[in-house]
Amino acid sequence: MPVIKILPHPEYCPNGAEITAPAGTSICEALLDNKINIEHACDMSAACTTCHVVVREGFKSLGEMEETEEDLLDRAWGLEPNSRLSCQAFVAKQDLVIEIPRYTINHAKENH
């Protein structure tokens, strides 16, 4: 099963973490299943950017981005060339290293 290494984030994962997820699982689902409560204001329907992550390793193993995701990412805080919406990026067979950006464009935090 692929390993997802999460780099430290002061709120969601202060010490960083390593989790496993079966292929076909979205990064967002994998994080939430492992008690890393990343924001996902639109309930993973690809309608916001609150679940934005930067894929530091393994980016090319993720499926192609659809136009909707590309358009949404244009509005994400801290956008990088290897940014993805974690609800739309599905784990394949390769290990990943991800970073959760420090901020989102959300003014109020969602408590899911």
UniProtKB/TrEMBL annotation:
Gene3D superfamilies assigned: 3.10.20.30
GO CC terms of this entry: cytosol
* Cofactor names: [2Fe-2S] cluster
Short name of one Pfam family for this protein? Fer2
What are the UniProt keywords, alphabetically?
2Fe-2S, Electron transport, Iron, Iron-sulfur, Metal-binding, Transport
Q: What top-level branch of life does the organism fall under?
A: Bacteria
Per its UniProt record, what PANTHER family does this chain match? FERREDOXIN-2, MITOCHONDRIAL, FERREDOXIN/ADRENODOXIN
Name the chain's protein. 2Fe-2S ferredoxin
